[in-house]
Amino acid sequence: MFQNIASGFALFATWMNFFAIMGGMLVGVIVGAIPGMTGTMAVALALPFTFYMEPVTGILLLVGIYKGAIYGGSISAILIKTPGTPAAACTVLDGYPMAEKGQARKALQIALYSSCVADFISNIALVFFAGMIASFALRFGPPEFFTLICFSLTIIAGVSGDSLQRGIISASIGLLLATIGLDLIYGVNRFNFGNTDLMAGLNFIPVLIGLFALPEIISACGKTQKGKDERTSLGKENLSFTEFKRCFKTIIRGSLIGVVLGSIPGIGGAPAAFLSYSEAQRTSKNRDNFGKGEIEGIAASESGNNGCCGATMIPLLALGVPGDVITAIILGAFMVHGLTPGPLLFQQNISIVYAIFMGIMLSSIGMLVAGFLSFGIFSHIADIPKKILFPIVLVLCFYGAYAVNNSMFDVLIMILMGYLGYFMLQFNLPVAPFLIAFILGPMFEDNMRRSLLLSDGGLMIFFRSPICWVFIIFTLLSVFVVVRRNLNQHKKVVRSAA
Questions:
Q1: How is the chain split into domains, by residue range?
Q2: To 5 degrees, how large is the angle CA 93–CA 94–CA 99?
Q3: Are 227 and 435 in contact (CB under 8 A)?
Q4: What is the distance between the alpha carbons of residues 183 and 254, in angstroms, rounded to a whole number?
Q5: Residue 177 clears pLDDT 60, i.e. is over it
């Protein structure tokens, strides 16, 4: 074993590997901070450059871009209310309100520290518990996925704000729009009205950009400017150790949630971020401040989505099954260099595996360095007056929506979603329930129908395993807590009125 570690260190200990992980991280942060330029796009564009590199160098470059992009999405989410990546959608809820209060610097710092801690925990899980976690992830079939998503949908109650009814209305709109496109079970078109562009459904990036960025711009255009040069201050207040200590428990919990969900193929960072956010809100003493600029909310979101990064590599390396779209591209890099991820990789190329592990462990430090460097690059955004910033953001929105599929139809979807978001803003409908339902809706329907097909319509398949029972119990407990909380709030309103 020590000989394998020594040979792995010899493979890793080169300047090219060091520059690959650090440079990839910095590139990923910059790309992730640009709306529409997702981590998937960045890794796919970088893949051809790895063909002539050494296997370890090429793979570490892609891993660095991947991890940097996930963190980078939080920068634009905090500063301009436009998540750079889907995984940062939850960060907007508290990040932008903090920026409006002049606490953008503090928000960026807690996002960075939470991301680094979560990434480190995720890397530890990858190195030491890959086999155990991968075997656990293999136990998830359609019924287990369905009960997990049922539990995740209870998050809607936690992010509905003061009115559960408005949250349910918002979530219903999200579920309705999620049904557009080709039915994955029978291949039937649904709600596409004969338009072939809608067969693939609504792309998440244009929906995300339109829902968050455009309503803010439309609302600002509707206000009368009376000569005031309005701008968002970055703020001079830094994150204190006391504040970080208060968030530490939330960061650890969010990291573990990210590790578990990230190791399950097909889940991704966005559901992990929302689930972590919900658990933080449920247990926090400041739960009423969530959605209004709560630092703990940013810590929960960023630890959840970054906890997935290393964990998505677990099924890839241990089983040869990519955990998400980006790791599927990284799987291609392995194949190009003649490496086959899975059990045989650990038997035939253990030195390369150890070298990759060492580079991945270094990525947490690389993220910290890239984060501090990005402060200097992106901090000037806060100093730009809004009458200049908003047109720039609008151009980026159009570019981001178009760049996903090089399609003007996606730009049209973004504009329509912008007006829907403005409508929701005017009627105080929360955006978070819409997003959760839109993300989880297709997975909810798909796994429910697969389960029913496996059981010929029998409902007992949803109770077939201990995993199903655990998530069913969690779901019932969550619903009970929500109902009790709403009854208590109703009693308080009645008493105050009396």
A1: 2-222+230-497
A2: 115
A3: no
A4: 33
A5: yes
